[in-house]
Amino acid sequence: MEEVEVVVAHSQRVTLRVGDVFLKVDGDPAHADVEVRAMALAPIPTPAILWREPPVLAIAAVPGRALGVLGEPSPASPAAWAAAGAAIRRLHDAPLPPWPGRRLDDVAAELDSECAWLLANAVLPAEVIRRNREIAEAALRPCKPVFIHGDLQITHVFVDGDEVTGVIDWSEAAPGDAMFDLATLTLGHEERLDDLLAGYGAGADRDVIRAWWSLRSLAVARWLIEHGFDPDAPGCEFDVLRSRMREP
After folding, report:
1. pTM as predicted
2. Is there a domain that residue 144 lies in?
3. How far apart are CA 22 and CA 5, in angstroms?
4. CA-CA distances (angstroms) from residue 183 to 30, 96, 123, 188?
5. 70, part of any domain
6. I need a surface site. Which of 36, 92, 128, 179 has the fewest CB within 10 A?
């Protein structure tokens, strides 16, 4: 009998692993719709879809292991990070998916709302919030949209040796800012940015990547807290925000 492992569980979504099969249970069928369509379009390795019976999507495990986890040093080699960068570049160079991405005005409005909540609840020192809000402003600029993964956390990119074997969790894929993907993957692992960009190639804007580190950390903090996660764990979002205070 296969053991059932709870991979992720919160009020919006549950992911279970049974052997080499992942079962994703989501109350919003639109998430699975996007995931299925995005994986069909992406020009990089993605999991095989085994079956779908709403609200459940069954996908196969990909070989290898994740680049790392937030809060711990990545065990992956520089070459593996460069391979991840090259894979992301192929995705960003692909034709746009035929559905809309987030509007810049909506991103800015969300950032303001989340910063107001953080200040009102004294979750972090006010100066940390205000300084990171200033840094985040650089991400709020018009840019040419590309095909982005949209939730490219370090645990979503799998490698075997120095080869990318699969990228998982595509429910946020859409047209968007290429720098957002690069920032999400290196959040809390800023020391690996050079390795990633060695594979990604020209066109990366380090100031905008830095801005997205601040913006994403500010924007997700309340959701993490309300869903039982700890953004104040070592190496996680609050450490990312505090680290900005040590910069000139």
Report:
1. 0.95
2. yes
3. 9
4. 25, 20, 23, 9
5. yes
6. 36
